[in-house]
Specification:
By secondary structure, the chain is mainly β. Helices cover 0% and strands 49% of the residues. It has no helices and 30 strands. Strands 5, 6, 7, 8 and 9 form a 5-stranded antiparallel sheet that branches. Strands 10, 11, 12, 13 and 14 form a 5-stranded antiparallel sheet that branches. The chain starts with 7 loop residues before the first strand and ends with a strand.
């Protein structure tokens, strides 16, 4: 599809719909600040994407590394878009305006041509911040959305807890608190392990020790195991790192990656789902990791300065049988931001923002041989 030079493009995300079909989602902002959440499809594993389809357009749409807007595909082909939407809350006399946002969803039954109006996942009418979310289709074809939500009437600065909203017969049910004390501003990650159990990966807050934990549900989100630390970082910080985890699963192994600033070993940790450390990327310019898998192989993608020009490029490693390969570089990928990717048999498809002039970024999609 053609890109409009008057628009600024952001947060491209690739998803494999089937062995032959790929979906790309992104947002684009016009000069008035209005944001459109869009998608396009590619057939036959090529780079030729269809004309874009607009899911929703508005001034309050949020899409960033802290909470990526997502489009989920259900077994019956229905598309469900989940994204953050900011609300305008009138300020009380003499007070600052209150922040508020909802996690909303739209549905399409005609391959993205038309969409329902956004509805809130959380039916609580309170004007609070809800964010840092993730969403996934469960094995029973229902949808789970996890997010952090303000604790109403809290006297602390940015006190939030971890909530879960599940659909039943495609209708969202009342939210539940699944952990009352967590790190307040770190993104949450959801994924299904090889047993198709739902894993929730998030940063805990235990007296300012901000280690990554996971809890597991074997019944599609109805109940969860006790949270367990994935890897003992012992990173103590009196504030929120604003860093979440990424995950992936192939037929044999699950992988997790996150940042920790522990004094003895600062950097991005790569571990198995069981917590076995495989690698650490401690280069100061490394950022924004992404994990993807096919049946037998997984790939870690991230951004890093390759030379002294201080221009971020795309780097990647193959992960097989618990071993990571040497770092490879995506050629001609300088000025990169916000990468994502999918692994198609022996080719890696990478989408990224490219830093443009006048803060108007564009999108690029590239194939790399694995």
């Amino acid at each position: 599809f053609a890109m409009d030079p008057s628009l600024s493009y952001a947060m491209p995300m690739l998803s494999a719909i089937s062995e032959q079909k790929t979906m790309l989602t992104w947002t684009e902002k016009d000069e008035k600040g209005e944001v459109a959440f869009c998608l396009a499809f590619s057939e036959n594993k090529d780079l030729n994407f269809s004309d874009k389809k607009v899911i929703f357009r508005g001034m309050g749409i949020g899409n960033s590394r802290m909470m990526r807007a997502k489009v989920l595909v259900k077994k019956d082909g229905k598309l469900v878009a989940v994204f953050s939407n900011r609300e305008e809350v009138p300020a009380e006399p003499g007070k600052r305006p209150k922040r508020a946002s909802n996690i909303v969803y739209c549905e399409s039954v005609d391959n993205g041509n038309t969409w329902t109006s956004p509805k809130a996942v959380d039916t609580d009418p309170a004007k609070l911040v809800r964010g840092f979310f993730d969403a996934i289709v469960l094995p029973n074809d229902e949808i789970a959305v996890v997010y952090l939500k303000d604790v109403e009437n809290s006297t602390k600065h940015e006190e939030r807890n971890l909530r879960l909203a599940l659909t039943k017969n495609a209708v969202f049910q009342p939210e539940r608190i699944i952990d009352p004390v967590v790190c307040d501003c770190c993104p949450i990650n959801l994924y299904l392990d090889k047993n198709q159990h739902l894993n929730v990966i998030y940063r805990d807050n235990n007296n300012d020790i901000r280690d990554m934990v996971r809890m597991v549900s074997k019944d599609n989100g109805l109940s969860f195991s006790k949270p367990e630390i994935v890897y003992q970082d012992n990173w103590k910080i009196a504030g929120c790192p604003h860093q979440g985890a990424v995950s992936t699963q192939n037929q044999k192994e699950g992988y997790l990656m996150w940042f920790a600033g522990a004094e003895n070993e600062q950097g991005y940790r790569l571990t198995t789902l069981a917590g076995k450390k495989l690698a650490i990327i401690d280069e100061a310019s490394a950022k924004e990791p992404w994990l993807t898998s096919n049946k037998s192989l997984s790939v870690l993608i991230w951004q890093q300065n390759k030379n002294d020009e201080q221009l971020s490029m795309v780097a990647f490693k193959k992960l097989a049988n618990g071993v990571s390969s040497e770092t490879q570089w995506l050629e001609n990928s300088s000025k990169t931001m916000n990468v994502s990717g999918i692994l198609l048999e022996k080719q890696l498809l990478i989408a990224r923002e490219v830093l443009g002039e006048n803060k108007k970024n564009t999108l690029a999609i590239t194939k790399a041989n694995i």
